[in-house]
């Protein structure tokens, strides 16, 4: 969740703050270059997708930590979490890296859009899939499986008197 907060902060900084500065003429539009346009767009879309992917990873962590399978629980470690956060960041950078090639600044100096209709469709499809649809499906599925793990843990191993005493001592 900490990494998600950082990703959202970057998205807000590059996405919202720069648009507000341009809208209220605090930032000069003539100084915007095509490279700045592409960079701003990249740093808006990538952190948004990273943040939703990290929420999915947090749900997967909850699923693995609630499992009775020792091998599955071994994935719920800080070392593994760091690797997953780095992997998610790299995958999302690869997915959204196309914006450095396909985006261009419009003549008005404010707007930055994909250069061709195919790029518009690809960008819209990527945003729909990696920010909206897939994370919701994965969070729902992992949440449901986590609830099933927790509910079935009590029926798998009957507790005995010694287990109850250890629980009370804790």
From TrEMBL:
Endpoints of the signal sequence: none
Transmembrane ranges? 7-27, 42-63, 84-101, 128-147
The UniProt keywords, alphabetically, are:
Membrane, Transmembrane, Transmembrane helix
Q: Does the keyword Signal apply?
A: no
Q: Look up the domain of life of the source.
A: Eukaryota
Which SUPFAM superfamilies does the UniProt record give? Family A G protein-coupled receptor-like
Q: Can you say what this protein is called?
A: G-protein coupled receptors family 1 profile domain-containing protein
Q: From which source organism is this entry? A: Rotaria magnacalcarata
Phylogenetic placement of the source organism? Eukaryota, Metazoa, Spiralia, Gnathifera, Rotifera
